User: Which sequence fits this backbone?
């Protein structure tokens, strides 16, 4: 119980303090109840203001965290439709050579530099269900942009097929941005 309510309770409000008249005793009790209600309403108003301030802080911090997450994903690409197991035991090695070949990109040494690659966590898909995407972190942002541009250009001609599966290349965004 808040201190202000405890203080209001501590005042002597016994029947003997207000004389022996029952009307005076009830008036004292009523005054005390009104005082306690006023204190409780003031406390509720201050708590509502604090809750409102905290809600605004939560919104601001959520937006900030989402911004940081998307900045961390800036060099990522999602590849959807690549058959599971096509990448073999080492996805990075496979994708470094496969991406430039598949998208007909001109690169030095015939490969693009990839930091890491993995499939997203998902249960094993059924026969007609979409395969879990591969998330690929490129070493250079420029390579990521060239890959997305080349995939966009080739997808207009419906040329992005691998082992009879349509392949899509997307930017990697946080769940909050995707929901928007």
Assistant:
């Amino acid at each position: 119980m808040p201190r202000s309510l405890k203080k209001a309770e501590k005042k002597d409000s016994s029947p003997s303090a207000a004389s022996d008249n029952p009307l005076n005793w009830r008036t004292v009790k009523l005054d005390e109840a009104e005082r306690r209600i006023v204190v409780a309403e003031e406390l509720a108003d201050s708590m509502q203001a604090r809750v409102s301030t905290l809600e605004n802080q939560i919104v601001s911090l959520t937006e900030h965290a989402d911004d940081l997450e998307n900045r961390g994903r800036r060099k990522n690409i999602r590849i959807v439709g690549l058959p599971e197991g096509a990448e073999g035991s080492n996805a990075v090695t496979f994708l470094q050579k496969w991406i430039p070949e598949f998208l007909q990109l001109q690169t030095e040494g015939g490969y693009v530099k990839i930091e890491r690659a993995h499939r997203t966590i998902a249960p094993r898909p059924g026969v007609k269900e979409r395969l879990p995407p591969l998330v690929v972190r490129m070493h250079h942002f420029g390579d990521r942009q060239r890959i997305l541009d080349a995939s966009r250009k080739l997808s207009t001609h419906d040329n992005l097929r691998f082992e009879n599966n349509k392949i899509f290349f997307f930017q990697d965004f946080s769940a909050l941005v995707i929901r928007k």
Notes: The longest helix spans residues 22-72. Residues 70 and 174 are 6 Å apart (CA to CA). The chain has a mean pLDDT of 83.
